[in-house]
Prior knowledge:
This protein is α/β, with parallel strands linked by helices. The chain has 12 helices and 14 strands. The strands form 3 sheets. It has a 10-stranded mixed beta sheet with strand order 2-1-3-12-11-4-5-10-8-9, sandwiched between helices. The protein has a two-stranded antiparallel sheet with strand order 6-7.
Amino acid sequence: MPHKILILPGDGIGPEIVAEAVKVLDVLRADFGLDAETEQGLVGGSAYDATGTPLPQRTLDDAKSADAVLLGAVGGPKWEPLEIAVRPEKGLLGLRKELALFSNLRPAILYPQLASASTLKAEVVSGLDLMIVRELTGGIYFGQPRGVRTLENGERQGYNTLVYSESEIERIGRSAFEIAMKRDKRVCSVDKANVLECTELWREVMIRVGKDYPQVQLSHMYVDNAAMQLVKAPKQFDVMVTTNMFGDILSDCAAMLTGSIGMLPSASLDANGRGMYEPIHGSAPDIAGSGKANPLATILSVAMMLRYSLDEDGLAQRIESAVSTVLDQGYRTPDIFAAGANEVGTAAMGDAVVTALRANA
Ligand code: IPM
Ligand code: MG
């Protein structure tokens, strides 16, 4: 049976970068024996424009029947005036929730070729290889009650709820420990247990889950300190596990350690290995349509898809080494440009990866 992959280009630079990832998938099918069928769908602002909702039922049905989803990005200034319930971001959040993609893996790896692209000193970041495991379907992003209400004195008050049940904490904890077992066997759980009862429970459950993984060293850190440590000494971390909102914030911070958010892929997995794969950067409306966006995060997201959902680790490695090859060859999109490099646009970068893949066949 061929793997079924749903492709959701989305908004902004989404369609441009996804087109390059599709070139890579096509080569894998033509030359490397990947047995996969792809289908395209609508999500985000472009889905809203076409159908009146950022997550059409058709997209949701297709996603549920696919083995994996590849998503570009959603959102943009055009849709900011819309009410929250139909904003493009709701398309993404709806997919995460409906597909039960609770485990979000956000690796931050520094390619040695890009050490000078980081704003931090090379010695602080060289060799960086950290994995943020972000809880993705709970916490304050989804907690009820939520909204804006009018108080008796006529003043409006906004409110959201941070809520985690033990089972939600336990399953994301297990994800993190399982991943750590395949890495350096260290997990740092990030919370705000000194202030928030919800994350006091988080810490308690992490300790309990950790007892099942005696080989893994578990530590705990408050989120403010974790943000500081990430820019001070990021190489101290192996796996970080944290809540939905803390993970949102810390993963942007970790991404920048590597020089460009344009390099980083992500995987969002359910309990059975079905997943959605997307670059961690957004829709970058400021450069959409200019052909300048870096497609490597999306191409590397295809590698994660092959590894985590399609059981094709060998093909994943081929993509990763092709990306490394194009960096060695000096190809750079503007976000990772450095003097002396060969500046290319989105399509030329995708073509360079395809050429490197074929050359190593
Ligand atoms: C991310 C993004 C999303 C999030 C937005 C677009 C809803 O920032 O994937 O990190 O907050 O989760
Ligand atoms: Mg984010």
